[in-house]
Amino acid sequence: MTKKQTMEIIEQLLALYPDARPELDFTSPYELLIAVILSAQCTDIRVNLVTQVLFEKANTPALMCQLGIEEIERIIKPCGLYKNKSKNILLTSEIISRDYEGHVPETIALLMTLPGVGRKTANVVVSNAFGIPAIAVDTHVYRVSNRIGIVSAKTVEDTEIQLMKKIDRALWTKAHHLLIFHGRRVCKARKPLCEECPLTSCCVYYKRRVL
Question: 120 an active-site residue?
Answer without folding.
Answer: yes
